[in-house]
Each structure stands twice: as C-alpha cells, then as structure tokens.
Amino acid sequence: MPLSKAEIQRLRSLRDKKHREELGLFVVEGEKVVAEILAAGSAQKFFFAELYATRLWMKENPKAADYLGATEVTVEEMVRISHFPTPSSVLAVGTITRLPLAPGALDLGLTLALDGVQDAGNVGTLLRIADWFGLDRVVLSPDCADLFHQKVIHASMGSFARVPAHTADLAAVLAQAKVPVLGCELEGDDVHGLAALRDAVIVVGSEGSGLSAAVKKCVTRSVTIPRFGGAESLNAAVAAAIVCDNLRRLTGR
Amino acid sequence: MPLSKAEIQRLRSLRDKKHREELGLFVVEGEKVVAEILAAGSAQKFFFAELYATRLWMKENPKAADYLGATEVTVEEMVRISHFPTPSSVLAVGTITRLPLAPGALDLGLTLALDGVQDAGNVGTLLRIADWFGLDRVVLSPDCADLFHQKVIHASMGSFARVPAHTADLAAVLAQAKVPVLGCELEGDDVHGLAALRDAVIVVGSEGSGLSAAVKKCVTRSVTIPRFGGAESLNAAVAAAIVCDNLRRLTGR
C-alpha cells in the first residue's frame, strides 16, 4: 500500500526541530547508522517507533524488519520521504526521550559538558569520544546543536544510543556540583600535570567563543593542552578527547 | 573596470582539481581564513598571487589590498566568482607550490603521515593538529583529499600556511625511513606506555578502512588508545592528536 500524502508530509516535516518537538519524533537514515543504533539497542534507550525500508533492505535485515513491523516502500517513495538528496534504503523514526538529570548526578563519575557547541558534527563527535572513554554522561547546554538532529546522530556513529545525554541549564547544574569542574581553555594548568580524578566534569566551549561567562564562573580549574607550534587553538572535540585520555591514563577504569 | 566573462570563468573553474592543476592556482574565500593566511605569511610559503575584494574589505584591510594589488569587485561580481552560494567579501588566489620531500627528510623530527584520508575537513583538522603540536611536517598519500581544496584550507584555520605539507607515495617513503613508524590502530601497544621519541613518524589511516596494506608493512609499532566504553573507533584526527599529545608529554619541545 503506497504511503499517503499526509504520511509523506509528516516524515518530511521531521527535518525541522519545531516539528520534531511537536510530534516527539526524530528521523535516522542510512544503512550504517540504523544498523549501529539497532546493535546498540540492548540499552534500549531509543526505541525506533517506525521503520521504512526498501524490499532489498527488508530481505537483508529480516529480524529488524519483523521486530519493528517495518513498512516496505518503493525507491520513489524513499526519495520523497528522505531528508537527503540521495536517499538510502532505510529510514527509521524514533521517539524523542529527554532524560532528566537527577539532582547530584554530576557528583558521581565523569561527565562531559558541552557549552554552546553549535556545530552538529562536533556534538556527534563529542558523544563518540564520551562513549570511547566510558564517560558516565554528557550534558548539553540548550544552545548546543539539537541532540536529535540527524547530523549529530550520524557523526556519533551509534554512540548516540549508548551514552546518556541530557540537556540542562549548564551554569545552574555546574553551580550545584561538588566535584572538580575542569574547563578546557587556552590558558590554564598543563593537562599533563592533572592528578587522578574519578569524579569530575570536563567542560568544553564553542569553537568560536569558548566558555560562556556564566559557565566560566563554575570552573574550579582551567586546564590547557601544551602547544608547541603556531595554531591558535584546537578543535573542541580534539581538546576534550585529549583531556579524557589524560584522565583515563591516571585513573584507568 | 568590471571583470571580463573570461576572468569570471577562470576563477570559477578553480573549483575543480583538474583546472587548479592546469593553471597551478588555488582559491581561498572568507574574511577569517584569508586574514589567517595573510597573518601566517611570514613563512611566505604560499603567496597570494591575486586578490578580489569588495570596497568595504579594501577599506578595512588597506595594507593587504595595497601589497597585493587587489582588484575591487562589486557584490554582484563576487556572487559570480565565488565557489559558495553565499559569498564573502574577499577571494584570494594562490600559486600551488608542491614541496618536494628530500631523501631522508623523515629521519629528523616528528612527521604526521596521512594514509588515504579522503575527508577534506579531516585533512584540514590534521594540519591544524600538526601545527599545534609543532610537528616538522605532514606527508599525504596521493589518495588523500587535495591539499589545495578550499575545505582543507578552511578546516586548517591558517595552519595550511604554516605546516610544511608534502604529497608522496607513502609506502615508498616510509620504507626508507630509519626512525620508528607508529601506526594508529585499534589493536596495538598502549599509547600511554610509549617511550620518549624525538624522531618518529605517526601514521593515521582513513576513517572507513584504516591503514592500507602497503603502509601497514612499514609500521614498526602499532599503537592504540585505551578504550573504556562502547564506541567502535575514534575519528582519525582525534586519534592522531592523542598520540601527538602523549609524545609531547614525554619529550617536550
């Protein structure tokens, strides 16, 4: 049965954050990323609510197709519902789940906090880094790229489905934190001199302007990565990864 | 005097690698990146041969405009010559300079080698990382993104004009190297256990497929970044940065 016009319209509308929020749904497209999220599904934080796929995809992924009650669509229909000029063979729809941040949550384990990181690719890469280093959670300020933006999900390479990520008023939650709040900054203590920390928050700012004034006030220690050459700065994701690696070198698991 | 049709055609053609190579020229657009490259100009590796700018840019950058004999263009002309849908106020043309790699060059200092890194943004970020850590050079295999692609230059944030970068048959030059060749891989020795190395090559592979078979044969030591969570891999630029940071922690300047 072909998709109705209203159905196509609804799926296409999920490109916009406004419509995603209204409907409480988000879209993921692409064989690789859908497979990654299905594979990460043991945590079952992000169920796919709907799945649209070509006959070929259905044939190659019988379990997923069956489990999700997938809708078979033609390549022409896929072109119409896809958010990309060149559609893939599968489009999944998930339910937006906003994880609440419990009071005191930052006081246990390692948290990566993103302050105004607006580039969706960077946010996705940061989720992947938090996942690699086994951080306990990621907290995003409300002016970061939307967690349910396809580019974020793609760049996270499946980590989106594994790392608990929360959106919160960053300065407010950091002000309550009892653990060290390490700010990645251009001026600060050498990251190689850090002591072992099992509970801490690592905060990175936006590419252009660094940490916001309100968040800066909550930083208990500025850390910096020693520079040996001419570049003015490091990408936020690269800086965060280096700080995580230094912490893990000291504390291990 | 308005730009001729042929002139506009020539500038537009520099989008394609084929035409860049034919004419030996490349294009850089954008106030920020042009300013960064002008500021990095003390090294004078990449002279701008031509510069096109709006009256406003000329007024705000009198020295550069004068020095380069800049051509004032209207906003309409800028729209026509720009490689982007939304043009900026300045477009510079540089001369492609291919730096030869002297025999034995890899045996002194630290080299970052890129094996088939096809994403232009990643190549630019890797140049920026090599610059930050004061590496002596970057060597790219011929199947990497073109060094003179605008996206590479943009992502490098000016490091393009500071770090000596060479394109070479990577396996051939690595086979001649007398220094340790460290391969960033998923299986290898813990990067935290590296000994201090003042002369070495760090090799990173492509996002999708890692190091090529020919390059792998030249690796004298595989190094890996300890993983604590669920992500399958780290981005090539992130991995390279962490290895550089660990080497610099041990050797300093």
What is the element layout, followed by pairings?
The structure is a homodimer of 253-residue chains.
Chain A: H1 5-13, H2 17-23, E1 25-29, H3 31-39, E2 48-53, H4 55-60, H5 62-67, E3 71-72, H6 75-81, E4 90-95, E5 110-114, H7 120-132, E6 137-140, H8 150-155, E7 165-167, H9 170-176, E8 181-190, E9 200-204, H10 213-216, E10 221-224, H11 236-251
Parallel strand pairs in A: 2-3, 5-6, 5-9, 6-7, 8-9, 8-10
Antiparallel strand pairs in A: 1-4, 2-4
Helix pairs in contact in A: 7-11
Descriptive overview:
- The structure is a homodimer of 253-residue chains.
- Chain A is elongated.
- In chain A, α7 (120-132) runs parallel beside α11.
- In chain A, β5 (110-114), α7 (120-132) and β6 (137-140) form a beta-alpha-beta unit.
- Chain A contains eleven helices and ten strands.
- Chain A has 253 residues and is of the alpha/beta class.
- Chain A has a six-stranded parallel β-sheet, with helices on one face. In chain A, strands 1-4-2-3 form a four-stranded mixed β-sheet.
- Chain A folds into two domains: 5-95, Ribosomal protein L30/S12 (60s Ribosomal Protein L30, Chain: A, 2-Layer Sandwich), CATH 3.30.1330; 105-251, 3-Layer(aba) Sandwich (Alpha/beta knot).
- The longest helix of chain A is centred in the C-terminal third of the chain and has 16 residues, at 236-251.
- Chain A has helices at residues 5-13, 17-23, 31-39, 55-60, 62-67, 75-81, 120-132, 150-155, 170-176, 213-216, 236-251, and strands spanning 25-29, 48-53, 71-72, 90-95, 110-114, 137-140, 165-167, 181-190, 200-204, 221-224.
- Chains A and B meet through α7 and α11 of A and α7 and α11 of B.
